[in-house]
Amino acid sequence: MDQKLFTELRTLYSLNWDKPNMMRIRVRMCDLVEEAPMRHAAAQTMERYPYLCVELKKDGEYYLAPNPRPVTVTHSLSGVKLNTAESNYHLISFSYFDDWVILDIYHAITDGTGAYEVLRTFLYYYLSERYGVELSKEGVRLVGDVIAQEEWDDPIAKLTDLPAPSGGQLPKAMIPTKSAGLKEEDQVTVYSIALSESEFMQFNVKNNGSPSTMVSLLLSRALYRLFPNDPDVIRITVAVNQRNILKAPLAHQNLVGAAFLEYNENIRVLPLDQQAASYRKMVFAQTTEEMVLGGLANQNGLTQMIISGKSDEERIATAGMIDEMTKDFTSATVSYVGKMNYPEAEKYIRDFRIWTRGTGGTIVIEISAVGGRFILDFIQPFSDPIFINAFLKELDENGITYELQDVMVLETPDVKLPWRE
Q1: For residues 290 and 43, what is the distance between their CA atoms, to the nearest angstrom?
Q2: d(CA 35, CA 24)
Q3: pTM, rounded to two decimals
Q4: Measuring CA to CA, how many Å separate 282 from each of 213, 222, 224, 364?
Q5: Which pairing describes strands 3-4 and 256-262: parallel, antiparallel, or unpaired?
Q6: Burial letters for 366-394: b for 16+ Cβ neighbours within 10 Å, e otherwise?
Q7: What is the pLDDT of residues 213-229, one digit of tens each?
């Protein structure tokens, strides 16, 4: 069925010309990837997700139409440009090279939670054929399932009786590039840091933290260590899954909200465990039903502003104005989807990465929990190691054992949109 756009619109029109809002998941298997099971698994996976087998079309308004063409599977690390003939006009694609499997998705159509569902399905089919094993089907979406309407429906578009949008505006945040006198570069650098899952969780329990709040706190401390006299507040944005509040656990859309963690003078004087407890309290206070629905009211208001434009050019201008107004309000973003929770598949995985891009000179840390390890992808739009060195020093001084696995140039796919020729 055709899908009317709503939640997708802000990402659609906010697309930066050079830095599309894409998500790339790289999975390093224990063995070389075999082509035949890779292709079969990709085909079966997409059969299970008809609402992601779509192409972007326009009939007065943009919408997602069913795309019966096969999903693209390429033998490469770079993948293909989405929404083009290369990708059979899909907004999702697969690729592989040596022992790496890569899943690329346009972030407008789903988020990390949705991508994890797709990945679990793919791994079930790939590993079953590649190794001739029978994996558990529990918690894995498979072909033949009855697909509930709740998987299709956009819960945000259906909201009614929302509270009035909150007024006011956050003060400006400390922006790492500005504080360090660095220029945002075209080339994005990503540092991969591996931690023992059990050891880091023990550290969190001991210090009143959680994976996302503790990483946010350690990054805050690192930024403050570097620039203690910066006049702007250090504010970390933590990604929040809105599905629980929306009572829509099956929804596939990009349903990520935000909690803002400020490393202010009241917190800076506290010991680590009390700082961590304070950060967790901030997240709790900002993820109540009232607060989330208030944030969604703001979000819907911005979407309506974009929709009110009479042409693509007007809508792009409105989205750009919104982005310009908000780009200086966060120092960094920390995102943690949660554990993969598929141990039978994880034993075949050596490494795991989630790659996205930040905006406005900010840092992004993507946290994965796979195969008994936390992987922190520390993503920055500049090559200078000043911030990663400060972050690793925080790990060292707090007795957190880590392995700096590699330093890579971040590469995410492009996507073609009608006004981007």
Answers
A1: 41
A2: 20
A3: 0.95
A4: 10, 20, 19, 20
A5: unpaired
A6: bbbbbbebbbbbbbbbbebeebbebbbeb
A7: 999 999 999 999 999 99
